[in-house]
Amino acid sequence: MKRNDILAHKRTFAGIFFLMMLLLVCFGAAGAKTDAAAFRLNKTSISGYAGSTYTLKASGAGSVKYSSTNKSVCTVSAGGKVTLLSPGGTAKIKAVSGSKTLYASVTVKGIGVTVKSNQSGAKKTSSVSAYIGEKYTLTVTHTGSKKVSFSSTDKKVCTVSKKGVITVKGSGTAKIKVSCGKSVKYIKITAAAQTLKVPDKNLYVNEKETITVKSVSIYDSINWKSSDTSVIEIKSQYRNKHIGTCNIIGLKAGTATLTGTSSFSGKKWTIKLTVYPSGETQKLSIYANNAGVSNSVDLSAYISLKPGDSINDVTYEIYDVGVKGSSASESSKALFTRL
Questions:
Q1: Contact 110, 88 (CB under 8 A)
Q2: Which backbone phi and psi does 242 adopt, to 5 degrees?
Q3: Tally of domains in the chain
Q4: Distance between alpha carbon 88 and the CA centroid of its chain, in Å?
Q5: What predicted TM-score, i.e. pTM, was given to this entire model?
Q6: Which are the contacts of 39, defined by CB distance < 8 A and separation ≥ 6?
Q7: Any domain includes 334
Q8: Domain, as residue range, for 312
């Protein structure tokens, strides 16, 4: 073979080899581009409660490496298993294959809170109308493995234990804060005020009256005492449908102080009452000054007055007083003065 022919063959083979390498590079790049475009995840977002698990699956790729942008909110295994941890939190799962990176957003839903009345068993989810002394128990769901904490915005109205037991201490409004992870819920507690109703503070002997205190819980009672049981006696006291009742009777004229004390809070009510005789007899001097009568006639009269009556407010008309010169048709106003 001639030298020129050999050189020609070498050039031909070199050209063919170059062309093959060029085709290989082009097809390889196109294949790589196709694989990158095909890389995808079965979920681009995840939303659920703490403790839930979800599995991410990749397609159009070979080896995939997963990681979480916030491991306190969620974790992910090498196989793509996502575990939600912190209520109320958000994060992303990162999936990397070669030069391609994909993300799936994660949202952990908030906790659920229920408050149950220890008295009736009734359940609420946002607000409660309560009476002083009552207790309620909180139940928290969807917490995952996170710790739950409780606090009160006003401990004078209500307190809450570490186990979620609410005790109503006084009247007013407060909120119980329930926290777990990044999730926070509030329960509004409105405690009714205990109101005292007192009848007329003036009693008569043998007169009965009733004193009441509204908004008394089943855990509470109002205990009444008299400073002088010979003047005012407490006949009975009890609670009925959140109303504390005290029945009293006046025994003799005088004054006495009644003191009511809450068995739960120690709050006191003090009432000073006066007992009057059932009727106060007054002797009056009556002078009849009639026209045509030369002198006044002194008569004796008795009238029964009750407290608050004034002798000066009483006017009598006297007919035919038996005075010489008077007749049945004549009348006169009598002037009264207390003897």
A1: yes
A2: 70, 20
A3: 4
A4: 24
A5: 0.66
A6: 58, 59, 60, 61, 97, 100, 102
A7: yes
A8: 280-338
Per-residue model confidence (pLDDT) at position 61: 82
CATH code of the domain covering residue 56: 2.60.40.1080
Q: How far apart are CA 28 and CA 92, in angstroms?
A: 32
> For 222-291, what is the HEC assignment?
EEEEECCCCCEEEEEEEEECCEEEEEEEECCCEEEEEEEEECCCCCEEEEEEEEECCCEEEEEEEEECCC
CA dist., res. 189 & res. 130, Å (int): 7
For 339, the 3-state DSSP assignment is coil
Q: Does residue 23 surpass a pLDDT of 60? A: no
Q: What digits encode the pLDDT tens for the residues 59-118?
A: 988 899 999 999 999 999 999 999 999 999 999 999 999 899 999 999 999 999 999 999
In a domain, 21, yes or no: no
Q: Which two tokens stand for residue 337?
A: 């003065």
Q: Could you tell me the CA-to-CA distances from 294 to 114, 135, 285, 324 in Å, in that order?
A: 94, 85, 19, 10
* Residue 27 forms part of a structural domain: no
